[in-house]
Amino acid sequence: MSRNELITLLNETVANHHIDQALALLKGVPSADLAELLQQMTPSYAAYLLEHLPQRAYIFAEFPAKQQMLIAQEMPRQVLAKIVSEMPSDDRADLFKRLDPSEQETLLPALAQAEREDIRRLADYVEGTAGAIMSSDYVTLKPEFTVAQAIEALRKDAPDAETIYQAYIIDEQRHLIGVVSLRELVLAQPETRVAQLMVRDVISARVDDDQDHIAKIMARYDLLALPIVDVQQALVGIITYDDAMDVASEEATEDFLKVGAVNATTKLSIKSAPILQLYQKRVFWLVFLVFGSLLSGIGIAHYEDVIAQHLVLVFFLPLLVGSGGNAGSQSSTLMVRALATGDVQFRDWFYLLGRESLVALCLGGTMAIAVSLLGYVRGDALVALVLAFSMVGIVLMGCLIGMSLPFILNRFGFDPASASAPLVTSICDAMGVLIYLFIASMILF
């Protein structure tokens, strides 16, 4: 049965209230695929079907934020409250923050007191920090537990925990003092104390750390989960690898949009975003770069006498200017990635400046040979000389600008991805015109 046929059949069964038949059709389908299927249905049908699915909380958590809101509006308050209470704590808090204040006040009384307090606590953390993405569903053990007691505790907590592969050891004040893996517990003797097995040097993060920093820590140390502590070093939550992957994906998308000079303050889908939103996210940089490009026109106007007497220079102008922008974009892309992965630091700037200069001279020299031959054919030996020197100078300038701009932005606390390809290209275009025509005026006059 094709996907479209399945959706059609589901719509028919739900419309006729044949819920058992609908559930039979969806038996064995993974939660992520179920979420995708339900998105193809009307919100009212999807809400009705979701109410009866056994894994409804996990399916609901898979929905995009917009779809969650549409389906939530179609559900009775008590049904929504049950689904919310079954959701992982971090997903539950995210949904709560998306609701209007009136909807929040309607939902909260239907939840248990512990869930209300947990939602309020997680929802108070600033967006973009570890606290905003952490989960409060984790397993803790006491250092005096035996392995047998620890495994029994894990068995009790497993249904509600995000992960049981790592258990965190805390003292009476909830200070994080160690971590032990499920593997270590399974392999140890039942009478062994947890304190003998736990690792005391725990890799952790602060609740106010940036979420991008969290993703980098987890990738660096290959962690399944990262414990999060407050200023008193008390354990307040964990961040699992799947949440870290979501953060990494969001950061990569944001950087990718910035490289294209697109405002990336919110998620943007070229397929579903409103036309006005697409316009608003792109217009600022394009207008800014239009005025930036006027520098090229000013340079041309300044050297109009040179151009008037040597019209052949115009033929090579796009070629030379484009080469500088291309070289700068390459350098900028490499440097933004290196900064994002932590491969280089600001202290490496001067060392990299020297390396990039050598690379740029080699690139510019190779390109100069090719373009000077063409210049000799179209003009004469002096024109070929102008083109050769200009190509080397423009490529060198483009590479150094492309490499340095991300460093400078990063040094002053700005996102280096803002050194986007269009921005670097516009700067290199203007500088390329000035370099080319300056060299031409020096050699030809």
Automatic annotation (TrEMBL):
<comment type="similarity">
    <text>Belongs to the SLC41A transporter family.</text>
</comment>
<keyword id="KW-0472">Membrane</keyword>
<dbReference type="InterPro" id="IPR036739">
    <property type="entry name" value="SLC41_membr_dom_sf"/>
</dbReference>
<dbReference type="InterPro" id="IPR000644">
    <property type="entry name" value="CBS_dom"/>
</dbReference>
<feature type="domain" description="CBS">
    <location>
        <begin position="198"/>
        <end position="254"/>
    </location>
</feature>
<comment type="function">
    <text>Acts as a magnesium transporter.</text>
</comment>
<feature type="transmembrane region" description="Helical">
    <location>
        <begin position="283"/>
        <end position="301"/>
    </location>
</feature>
<dbReference type="GO" id="GO:0015095">
    <property type="term" value="F:magnesium ion transmembrane transporter activity"/>
</dbReference>
<dbReference type="InterPro" id="IPR006668">
    <property type="entry name" value="Mg_transptr_MgtE_intracell_dom"/>
</dbReference>
<feature type="transmembrane region" description="Helical">
    <location>
        <begin position="357"/>
        <end position="377"/>
    </location>
</feature>
<protein>
    <recommendedName>
        <fullName>Magnesium transporter MgtE</fullName>
    </recommendedName>
</protein>
<dbReference type="Pfam" id="PF00571">
    <property type="entry name" value="CBS"/>
</dbReference>
<feature type="domain" description="CBS">
    <location>
        <begin position="134"/>
        <end position="197"/>
    </location>
</feature>
<dbReference type="Pfam" id="PF03448">
    <property type="entry name" value="MgtE_N"/>
</dbReference>
<feature type="transmembrane region" description="Helical">
    <location>
        <begin position="383"/>
        <end position="409"/>
    </location>
</feature>
<keyword id="KW-1133">Transmembrane helix</keyword>
<keyword id="KW-0813">Transport</keyword>
<keyword id="KW-0479">Metal-binding</keyword>
<comment type="subunit">
    <text>Homodimer.</text>
</comment>
<keyword id="KW-0460">Magnesium</keyword>
<dbReference type="Pfam" id="PF01769">
    <property type="entry name" value="MgtE"/>
</dbReference>
<dbReference type="InterPro" id="IPR038076">
    <property type="entry name" value="MgtE_N_sf"/>
</dbReference>
<dbReference type="InterPro" id="IPR046342">
    <property type="entry name" value="CBS_dom_sf"/>
</dbReference>
<dbReference type="InterPro" id="IPR006669">
    <property type="entry name" value="MgtE_transporter"/>
</dbReference>
<keyword id="KW-0812">Transmembrane</keyword>
<dbReference type="GO" id="GO:0005886">
    <property type="term" value="C:plasma membrane"/>
</dbReference>
<keyword id="KW-0129">CBS domain</keyword>
<dbReference type="InterPro" id="IPR006667">
    <property type="entry name" value="SLC41_membr_dom"/>
</dbReference>
<dbReference type="GO" id="GO:0046872">
    <property type="term" value="F:metal ion binding"/>
</dbReference>
<keyword id="KW-1003">Cell membrane</keyword>
<feature type="transmembrane region" description="Helical">
    <location>
        <begin position="307"/>
        <end position="327"/>
    </location>
</feature>
<feature type="transmembrane region" description="Helical">
    <location>
        <begin position="421"/>
        <end position="444"/>
    </location>
</feature>
